[in-house]
Design goal:
By secondary structure, the chain is mainly α. The protein contains 3 helices and 2 strands. A two-stranded antiparallel sheet has the order 1-2. The chain has helices at about 25-30, 35-55, 60, and strands at about 70-75, 80. The longest helix has 20 residues, at about 35-55. It is rod-shaped.
Length: about 80
């Protein structure tokens, strides 16, 4: 053992499996919890949705007024 309360990678695993710590519980000790993964994925999805919606701006929502003699073209996104 490395220290009084510290388990070394090559020491027997404290769970009692008989394996070395590096082949047993070390693999699971550095993982994120399922709740943490859910939070990360949820934040990424929310960011992607917000990014996608930022491009979906309709002229009705922005109250665009064109100069006299021109009309709004939603296909091009500007006045003609």
């Amino acid at each position: 053992m490395v220290g009084a309360g510290k388990v070394g990678r090559n020491d027997p695993c404290p769970c009692g499996s008989g394996k070395k710590y590096k082949q047993c519980c070390e693999r699971t000790s550095n993982r994120l919890s399922p709740l943490a993964w859910l939070a990360i994925v949820g934040a990424a999805v929310a960011a992607l949705v917000a990014f996608g919606l930022s491009f979906n701006v309709s002229p009705e929502l922005t109250n665009i007024t064109c100069p006299p003699g021109q009309i709004w073209d939603p296909g091009h996104g500007h006045c003609h």
